[in-house]
Design brief:
Number of helices: 8
Helix content: 55-70%
Largest sheet: 2 strands, antiparallel
Strand content: 5-15%
């Protein structure tokens, strides 16, 4: 499923409107235009776009489809298998103001806590942020928080699975980046 992204900038607000269309409804030209619009938005206003996507993943007025699509875009913005692009993404991440980065981290964790149905996109959002922050000595409380949630007897098993998935993906990602 692919969403049609529109980028609009008002004086202080960036809106990403996700129109709930599937691939079968959108033709290839519409899909390419949607990706082009998102790429322009990311290139020209990265901090607002990434923050807007992180706000979408926790907006309870939107459905799982919207959360997943915004989460997938957030993951894509922060990850690349190419080392040069990964360095570019990491630098762009650290150029964000602290408050913006903290809000995105909070939103990613909130999305993970809201994901009762084993959605890996929320775990991957947390993982991608963690794999940038932890090596820089930032977000040290994350591992304690994940461990506390995993060992808490009141945490539902589905959420424990999500938290364990974050740890698993962080290990996978770290091995892929540093040893392969």
């Amino acid at each position: 499923i692919l969403s049609n992204y529109r980028y609009c900038q008002n004086t202080d607000i960036v809106k990403i409107q996700i129109l709930n269309n599937s691939i079968s409804i959108l033709d290839i030209e519409q899909r390419m235009e949607a990706w082009h619009q998102l790429e322009i938005a990311i290139a020209t206003d990265f901090d607002r776009v990434v923050l807007a996507l992180s706000n979408i993943i926790v907006n309870q007025e939107l459905g799982d489809f919207m959360h997943c699509e915004a989460g997938q875009q957030l993951i894509g913005i922060m990850y690349s298998s190419e080392s040069q692009e990964m360095t570019f993404n990491r630098n762009r991440w650290f150029d964000l103001p602290w408050a913006t980065r903290d809000q995105i981290k909070f939103n990613c964790l909130e999305a993970l806590a809201m994901s009762y149905n084993g959605t890996s996109w929320a775990a991957l959002c947390v993982t991608r942020v963690a794999c940038m922050e932890l090596p820089a000595g930032n977000w040290p409380e994350l591992l304690d928080l994940l461990g506390a949630q995993i060992t808490d007897t009141t945490t539902p098993q589905s959420l424990k699975d999500n938290y364990l998935l974050v740890i698993e993906k962080m290990c996978e990602f770290t091995v892929r980046i540093h040893f392969l």
